[in-house]
Amino acid sequence: MQPTNQLIQWPRAQYWDKAWNPIIGCDPISPACEHCYALSLIRRFHPNMPLTPRSTKRTTPPKTKVVFCGNLTDLFGDWIKNGVGCELIRATMPNRDATYLWLTKRPLNMGRILSTPMFSASVLRNHFFGFTAENSDWYNNRDVDYQFTTPEWVNYWISCEPLLGPINLMLMPQHLPSWVVVGCESGPLRRPCKLEWVREIVRECQRYGVPVFVKQLDLDGECVKDIERFPEDLRIRQVPWEVK
Question: What's the pLDDT score for residue 80?
Answer without folding.
Answer: 87
